[in-house]
């Protein structure tokens, strides 16, 4: 994506990572970890552009680390003033340890609750703090600080070329993603989205988690892990609605687990046919072990590359497979809302 002439990309496919891992992931694609912009207004614009492109729940690491008294960009050596107006309340305060790194706020409520304050800090080694925010490498401009009039950052946006870094585009306005799911609807509490009469919510703040952790996180808010919809068309619509609401990179766990021969919903006990047309290619195949769980595809390219195939599977214990997808408990027996005829799943 392009923000005021500089090209950026968030890598979300591994969930939240440490600052060092984020730095390495950017370098692996021929980029660098994003350097805090020179001008206040560019930093404020970057937060909004990141949220427009990647949606909510997108806090990211920036390439600046504490040196004991202040935050210093790497590379470049510019320091970020501790009195900069860009800091979120009480940041950085005393948190200028060499073990603390700089972050870009990635929560939509911050645009209204703390406008003009896109920066905060976190422990560099914390695996649950942020995604990598990568930047096309450009010459650094050492010696400048944030706050007050300073020279414009010296990156030059050009048209996309075959040699460009994959996934990072330049030139033209950044597209704004319009969410289509209705989070504020009768029957859905705040923070939940509506998909064909059922209320759902993704938790992204801890990054990817195991199936069991996802289940517990849903229960902690008085919900259940999302149960696969009864009708094929509702399952297909759910994938699209989740992607519309939460953007790309949103694979989620569903409440169905292998029993050795098939996937069985929990609760409910319905089994999902191994020949269902909803399975992504080669899934589930032999992968119906009790150690494998059901997932909802969360990659936008799947809408065109594998339309009508929203389901796949993954090891339940993997911490790098999916986010929790929670569902309101709106059925007394199983938590399932039945919507019309034509169930996609056979009775056990």
TrEMBL record:
Cross-referenced InterPro entries: C-type_lectin-like/link_sf, CTDL_fold
Protein's name according to its UniProt entry: C-type lectin
């Amino acid at each position: 994506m392009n923000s005021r002439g500089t090209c950026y990309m968030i890598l979300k496919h591994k969930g939240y990572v440490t600052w060092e891992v984020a730095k390495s992931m950017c370098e692996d694609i021929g980029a660098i970890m994003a350097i805090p912009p020179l001008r206040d207004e560019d930093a404020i614009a970057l937060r909004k552009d990141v949220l427009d492109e990647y949606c909510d729940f997108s806090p990211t690491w920036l390439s600046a680390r504490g040196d004991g008294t202040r935050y210093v960009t790497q590379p470049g050596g510019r320091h970020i003033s501790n009195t900069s107006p860009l800091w979120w309340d009480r940041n950085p305060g005393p948190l200028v340890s060499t073990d603390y790194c700089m972050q870009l706020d990635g929560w939509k409520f911050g645009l209204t609750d703390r406008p003009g304050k896109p920066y905060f800090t976190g422990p560099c080694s914390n695996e649950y703090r942020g995604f990598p925010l990568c930047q096309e490498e450009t010459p650094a401009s050492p010696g400048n600080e944030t706050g007050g009039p300073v020279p414009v950052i010296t990156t030059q946006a050009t048209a996309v070329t075959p040699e460009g870094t994959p996934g990072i585009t330049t030139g033209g306005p950044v597209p704004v993603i319009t969410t289509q799911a209705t989070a504020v609807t009768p029957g859905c509490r705040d923070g939940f989205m509506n998909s064909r009469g059922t209320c759902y919510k993704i938790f992204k703040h801890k990054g990817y988690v195991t199936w069991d952790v996802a289940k517990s996180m849903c229960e902690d808010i008085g919900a259940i892990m999302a149960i696969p919809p009864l009708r094929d068309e509702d399952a297909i619509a759910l994938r699209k609605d989740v992607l519309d609401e939460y953007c790309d990179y949103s694979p989620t766990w569903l409440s169905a687990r292998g029993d050795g021969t098939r996937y069985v919903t929990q609760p409910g006990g319905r089994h999902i046919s191994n020949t269902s047309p909803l399975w992504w290619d080669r899934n589930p195949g032999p992968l119906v072990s009790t150690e494998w769980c059901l997932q909802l595809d969360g990659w936008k390219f799947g809408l065109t590359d594998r339309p009508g195939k929203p389901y796949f599977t993954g090891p339940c214990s993997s911490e790098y497979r999916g986010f929790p997808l929670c569902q309101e408990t709106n059925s007394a027996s199983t938590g399932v809302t039945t919507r019309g005829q034509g169930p996609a799943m056979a009775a056990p």
